[in-house]
Design a protein that fits this description.
Number of helices: 8
Strand order of the largest sheet: 5-4-3-8-9
Number of strands: 9
Number of domains: 1
CATH class: Alpha Beta
Distance between the termini: 60 Å
Largest sheet: 5 strands, mixed
CATH architecture: 3-Layer(aba) Sandwich
Radius of gyration: 18 Å
Order of helices and strands: HEEHEHEHEHEHHEEEH
Shape: globular
CATH topology: Glutaredoxin
Length: about 210
Amino acid sequence: MKIFIPLLLLMFNVNIAAEAAQTITEDPNNVCPIKVGQSLPSLILQDVEGKPFDLNKAVAKQPTVLIFYRGSWCPYCNTHLGELKTIEGDLKKLGYQLLALSPDLPKNLKQSVKQHEMAYELVSDNQAKAAKALGLAFHVDDKLNDVYQGYNIDLNKASGQSHRLLPVPAAIVLDTSGTVKFVFFAPDYKVRISPRVLLAAAEAALPVDAQ
């Protein structure tokens, strides 16, 4: 009996830890994003055509700047996505690709690409797999959801899901091994990283011989 009690306690503690890791906050100030030095988990999302998009395979091809935004309904997101176009060429010269993830359905991504004439890739995280796995997801409570609906913003319709999860806006720089080299996140959705600051962070994250 003495042999099995520690094992049972260990299993109990592991289960409690797993449940805690799956807990989603309703306060964006309480998110706990992935940290520098940690690795990107395995993630299969969707491209603009609704086809599977293996994020890890994409990252393995070249260093990546990963942008999380709330959706095409967010004017602050649209402004920032437009600003990022100003450094896309510089990022390419450094060997980077720029990927932007949101809870939008693939069909909404296609509309954003067309409307804003984006050359970089938009990826659908409408099931919030990436937002949850990278510690950026928060749940929109009933009060905030009512505010959004007052502006004709339907989160369920935008994502095709009923989870009402949004990512805290973020920028993450990854090397080809999927290791995080830089993280910026802003619980205040009006705050976004400056394109030039992001470019500098991306350049600094490269090996010395690649700069």
